[in-house]
Specification:
2 copies of one chain form a homodimer. Chain A is of the alpha/beta class and about 325 residues long. Helix content of chain A is about 35%, strand content about 15%.
Chain lengths: ~325, ~325
């Protein structure tokens, strides 16, 4: 982890979200001023509840599809761009969602950063840029990059924009390709969905696909500590890091654990097929040697992260304020 | 080359451009109806002069930044999306150029194709998606893809969108990563620029960079025959092909040949530096085994293509109607 800095103001888009809010707390602990931009569609004010009202942070409601509030970028040293449509499946129903909340938002953030002479932009990309990879664990150099979803397309478009801005304008770029990030404040994703389904109908749990989809899950605090480590220790013009764990967990196993944690009455029913939905990537395991080479390691492996999330949801309901 | 087809209507965006107009002629020769969408910013009506007015093709002036003329897509079997900002350097001066004429235009074309139930979309991408590769010749599987220009970012964003549309909606995608495509009707690029410079000042030719940039040049008719071959013979859901030659030519050599072809009076002056401009990729050589595996070969290597282009420009001026 990084030591304290003196007044290094940071902008965090999506800073009221499940990952962003953990990052905001860590940046404040590091000594930074933080300006949170969030449209509060999936982010929540409650995620930032309890933070001292000491003038070192503020939340500005912002629709990044149109503009990125340039005034908030003045004097910022770095911009963390985490805002996005968090629901991959939504993109297939309305292709404009990821274009606007992904690609266009990223462009507006980069333009605001460039005009404000910001030195570093750090971007939450995703393992889905690898499409349907044939190499596991998948390294950062893997190609071709052929995403299967419009969400993935918007993440790859965002990476490409960061790379171009780095080379054209000298803004240092950090691209973090996330495994599934989980934690107590998630408001989407497979564990959240399973809890919601069992709450609605305690007799059955429908699982999209054959249950053999198998992926890595990274605990949200580990994700944030990895990004801060890279921010401190990586010095290339464009820095690409996979963030995940060395193990993975099947969807069937997650379903069984959720059923056990909710009373054990629900019957698990698989819809069948290799993929849960159009654009789903059934197998995911990222090579994390590069980020581990900077001295970071995940505190929790995927199985532990899944168990911790399930335990929290079982105790206080999914998506409860952390 | 493909045999004649019966009435397979095709949409060609950028069909009045230097490459698009050659493609339009080839599609008509193949037996297709052709609907050309072009904003006529770098495309020219004269590029399509002399085509029989037999009702099998039409040109519709279209600004793809806003919309893609859905009516023109009705009944089309395939869409060739070649429209783009052709000037890579322009993107650094105004980052919105490639976002709008590249990424947004591609999105609008794909949306129109999806709504019209078009079966295939074929897209002119570029070798610049490879960024600054470390492997030569560079294969289609090369990664990471970190473009150096906003033009390159828009091409990678376009590829990502094609891949997502293929997987989400079943539209077959063809991605062609072009080397430098040259021919008598080019209105931009290094040879065109050199002729224009010598015309303005016959005493000197300023070369951006140190002249050691070395790239492949593919004759425009070879480029079109390769795309038609892939359209006929490639059957994956997403088909990615490098299009180039097996040799390359240095910028210094091109400058010397242009000077010789224009009277030999101009003194060549290098501005210095490895790159010609921010975003320039100094070394480029593509692996073309995949497209050659379909039975295509370039008729002309890079040196011959450069010589043919210089000879045409010397005889009738750069960018003259073909």
């Amino acid at each position: 982890m990084s030591g304290p800095r003196t007044a290094a103001p940071a902008v965090v888009t999506g800073g009221a979200g499940a990952i962003g809010s953990v990052l905001v707390r860590a940046l404040l602990a590091r000594g930074s001023e933080v300006r949170v931009l969030d449209n509060l569609s999936s982010g929540r004010r409650s995620h930032l509840a309890g933070l001292a009202d000491d003038g070192r942070w503020r939340l500005v409601e912002t629709d990044l599809r149109k503009d990125a509030r340039p005034a908030e970028f003045a004097g910022a040293e770095e911009v963390w761009h985490l805002a996005a449509n968090p629901d991959i499946r939504l993109g297939t129903a309305d292709p404009r969602t990821d274009l606007e909340h992904g690609t266009l938002a990223t462009f507006h953030v980069l333009e605001a950063a460039r005009r404000a002479d910001v030195k570093r932009v750090l971007f939450s990309s995703s393992s889905v840029v690898y499409g349907y990879p044939t190499v596991f664990p998948t390294p950062e150099e893997y190609g071709p990059l052929l995403p299967q979803s419009l969400y993935g397309a918007s993440k790859l478009a965002g990476e490409a924009l960061l790379s171009a801005y780095a080379h054209c304008y000298g803004i240092r770029a950090f691209i973090f390709r996330f495994a599934n990030i989980i934690g107590p404040t998630m408001t989407h994703g497979v564990i959240y969905d399973f809890f919601e389904k069992v709450r609605r109908d305690p007799s059955r749990l429908e699982v999209l696909g054959d249950g053999r989809q198998s992926k890595s899950y990274l605990w949200v605090d580990d994700c944030v500590s990895a990004m801060l480590r890279a921010d401190d220790a990586a010095h290339d013009l464009v820095n690409v890091f996979n963030l995940g764990t060395r193990d993975r967990v099947s969807v069937r196993e997650i379903a069984e654990r959720v059923v056990a944690a909710t009373g054990g009455r629900a019957r698990i029913e698989f819809t069948g097929g290799e993929r849960g939905w159009a654009g789903d990537v059934p197998q995911q395991l990222l090579a994390i040697d590069r980020i581990e080479g900077l001295g970071w390691k995940p505190t929790w492996d995927s199985r532990a992260a899944v168990d911790k999330t399930i335990a929290t949801f079982a105790a206080s309901g999914p998506g409860a304020p952390g």
